[in-house]
Amino acid sequence: MYAQKLEGDEWIGEKMEPGKIDKMSDQQLGQLYELMQAIRKKQEEDANSEQ
Predict the structure, then answer these.
(1) Number of structural domains, the chain?
(2) Prediction pTM value
(3) Which residues span the domain enclosing 21?
(4) For residue 4, what are the CA distances in angstroms to 7, 11, 40, 45?
(5) Which residues 6+ apart lie within 8 Å of 24 measured at CB?
(6) CB burial class (10 A; 0-12, 13-18, 19+) of residue 41?
(7) Other C-beta atoms lying within 10 Å of the C-beta of residue 19
(8) Is 34 within the bounds of a domain?
(9) Residue 22 falls inside a structural domain
(10) Do residues 29 and 21 make contact, with C-beta atoms less than 8 angstroms apart?
């Protein structure tokens, strides 16, 4: 189900359950943070290219 959500845009705006975050290792949290930064950078680049 996770992979299917990532293929589309259904995941946008969803929040992770705090229990799932609590179960993540430090490495997983670091990867999640890096993913968040990459998504934000891409969104900024897309917004700038539209202007």
Answers:
(1) 1
(2) 0.66
(3) 17-44
(4) 5, 10, 21, 25
(5) 32
(6) exposed
(7) 7
(8) yes
(9) yes
(10) yes
